[in-house]
């Protein structure tokens, strides 16, 4: 169930991509985890998102580079979903996942 929940959220994240600028510094592990948690809360509700916190705590950024469409394209490692990529941008309230980068 955990793997399918995160997979479903990643699909939702890709569908809700938006274009915007970002700052000069790449997101940290915590920034990426916080962005993923916020997206999970929007997609599944706070209670369901909270149930994923333990798995999200294991997410690590492998590397990030500036993305052509703005933000940063990041390679992310997760024990649940394995290695994946995503594009993150800085908003006034923190980092946001804005879609798949590859």
TrEMBL record:
Q: Does the keyword Signal apply?
A: yes
Does the record carry Signal as a key word? yes
Q: Where is the signal peptide?
A: 1-20
**Keyword field:** Signal
In which domain of life is the source organism classified?
Bacteria
According to UniProt, the name of this protein is Lipoprotein
């Amino acid at each position: 169930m955990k793997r399918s929940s995160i997979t479903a959220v990643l699909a939702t994240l890709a569908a809700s991509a938006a274009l915007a600028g970002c700052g000069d510094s790449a997101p940290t592990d915590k920034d990426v985890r916080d962005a993923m948690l916020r997206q999970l809360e929007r997609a599944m509700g706070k209670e369901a998102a909270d149930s994923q916190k333990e798995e999200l705590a294991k997410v690590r950024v492998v590397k990030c580079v500036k993305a052509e469409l703005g933000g940063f394209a990041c390679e992310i490692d997760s024990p649940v979903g394995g290695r994946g990529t995503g594009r993150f941008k800085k908003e006034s309230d923190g980092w946001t996942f804005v879609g798949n980068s590859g």
